[in-house]
Amino acid sequence: MNVLTMPSPPAGDAVRAYSLKTIGVSKIFGPLTALDDVSISVEAGEFHALLGENGAGKSTLVKCIMGFYSADRGKVLLNGAEAKIANPRDARANGIGMVYQHFTLVPSLTGAENLVISRADAPSIFDWKKEKAGLEAFLNRMPFRVPLDVPVSALAAGEKQKLEILKLLYLDQRLLILDEPTSVLTPGEADEMLGLLRGMTQRKEVSVIMITHKFREVTAFADSVSVLRRGRKVGGGKVSELSVEDMARMMIGDTPIRDRAIRADRAPGDVVLDLSALYADDDEGLPALDQFNLKVHAGEIVGIAGVSGNGQSELVEVLSGQRPLKDGRIVVKDEIFEPNRKSYAKLKIFGLPEEPLKNATVPRMTVAENMAFRTFDQPPSAWLGWWLSVGPMRTKARALIKQYRVKTSSPESAIADLSGGNVQRAVLARELSGEVDLLIVANPCFGLDFASVAEIRAQIMEQRNRGAAVLLVSEDLDEILDLADRVAVMSAGTINYVSPVGSTNRAEIGKHMAGH
Amino acid sequence: MSGDSPFIIVLLAIVGGALRVSTPFMFVALGECLTEKSGRVNLGLEGTLVLGAMCAYAISFHSGSPWLGVLAAGCAGSLLGAIHGYVCKLPRVNDIAIGIAMMLFGTGLAFFFGKAYIQPSAPRLESFSLGAWTGNQQIETALQINPLLLVGVVVAIAMSWAFANTKWGLIVRMTGDSAPAARAMGVSVDMVRFLSTTAGGFLAGVGGAFLSLFYPGSWNQGLSSGQGLMAVALVIFARWDPIRCAFAALLFGATGAIGPALQSVGITQGYYFFNAAPYILTLLVMIASAGSKQAARNVPGELSITK
Ligand SMILES: Nc1ncnc2c1ncn2[C@@H]1O[C@H](COP(=O)(O)OP(=O)(O)OP(=O)(O)O)[C@@H](O)[C@H]1O
Ligand SMILES: [Mg+2]
Question: What is the DSSP code (8-state) at residue A468?
Fold first, then answer.
């Protein structure tokens, strides 16, 4: 192992943060130029935001900085001197740490084990008493705490995210790179966390590069911003000198944004989805759905609001057949619903679950194959239901890729290689391309850029206007208020409040979300 | 003491059986446990076991020292483990398929080189009895302990401790549970798995030494009756915990002794059924634990059998 010495911090005792510059970084994946001559500059103690559409190359850029990918051209300057970073370990030794878009904590290890093992100077044999005392002392200096004695797999998403950041601070990293750190947090948690980081940058303890899609976070917390489009740096500057419109225009160029979806005036039709007295357990065997009742009519969107972890994911899993129902009845269009492929096709039920890469795709299969999951056994993709023809499948995938603007190097690349937002689009393209009677969507705009958000919300609204019943589970209250005809609040596995959107307000919903 | 009560006789026979035959299961299960904790499956340990038995016997015969034989068995096992570990590193290689190939390779190699050692007799490992102080002949024979069993127990405890308290232990667990996380930390996943498979092979080889140097205590081609394969199942049974692996091996040995023990007091009914008892027990426990969420949580996340 090569021994790397920490670069000396810049002059001035108080400044512990590092500055970073990239100069002409390029990265090529086969036929695709993911990064083309990108130069950004982050001052010591600066909170820098990295903006760009889905697939613009943001994650690729920071992964090049971290040594996760090796850039094909270009270099990285740390505190003004060129840094040779060949792998993430070098990055860590140089004081650069990153929170990836997907969690990188080891699920079966406890928080304490995860922290201690990540240290470069971790001892060969742990003296847990001493380590625990050290961790306790460290936590006392930190602005937030996370339980360290339970396996990480038992932590909620927000806690995991905090632990990721604690890990970087524990390692005494001076430049933190965060890839969409708030996508799994509630707005309250996000503000708290970003506020703390902001404080640390102002005290010049760390510098931060944050990838985000949320302009609100940029204007509220960042000092400066760089914008990428299709692998090129297209703009940037001080946040105080830029408006949201400026940044949006840099991100998408002249591409027109889809107008806000118009809600067609229509009376709700018959009941399409009738859930009565559902009971189901979570992974730990504890009740997740507890006497859950809800009806969704044709031509309406019912939005389920609630603090995450109150049974929303279990509900979606039950409806998609991923979790057994302990008791209760699911009726779709007057038929008892069995979650199998035949009934999905017959009843025209479609859906977009959470974490689509995990729940709705086979990551290592190609984009075209993944897009054919609904139709591969029907003509024209299949003959007599079993002889599959690749040609029509590919043609269809090409059309969908074009229509939904999925950014991929080809229909034949593995879907796992798409950027986070484009996986989402590919799945939506598959699910919305047919005739839809019932649509079940969970957090559909998670991690999408604002143009895609507008696009996807419009798609959902269009399905409703066409007469589909839509069940929308979302942690984003704005999304629900924007889309839903009726809002239902879920708390402790049951619905404790239902109201037409027109006759309620945030405060009322918030009160019920808190369980009152 | 009423040493003649049939119940006591059966009980002693079962305990004796557990102490006598469980050692190879224990070593192979511990080796496989280590390998699987790092995220790889080595189904070839049956071959490692047989090759270990052969090498141990041969070296013991030539050198006159059974302990040198044990060491040689371990080294032969490491070699097979290292080959497995290296081949699995190559792209698009499936560890299960390689395991089966390595199993055949190991047994084939052992039979080939072992032909010459079927006849001669080699010095064997000495046992000692935990029951000598009682002065009771039956108890004394029943509590015959072989030194390797003690080594196995120590290894189990050491492994369990190391998984929780050492850097290497945590790195192995991390690699087995989340390769991306390990890579993000700059750990070479392939290297960790290679070393774990090699060390696992060492343990399985030592388990083989027991077969030829203690019980049954000679080298022939029918020496192993699938212990190496059963031990792999025992790891699942023990939910990837070294201490539980040791207990599972003892339990397996004990149930295996039920049939002969009953026969020794004149109960011959259901002899074959009782001989199958260990397998039935394993099946039952597997079925019972298959649905359990707890079991699912203990599986190393990277194992190809569960992915
Ligand atoms: N390992 C890879 N192999 C091939 N192509 C890749 C790979 N990683 C990324 N890409 C491609 O590079 C482009 C940029 O991807 P990147 O993940 O950097 O986007 P992003 O800006 O982070 O988007 P998002 O906001 O959706 O996360 C995408 O078109 C993606 O498909
Ligand atoms: Mg990204």
Answer: -
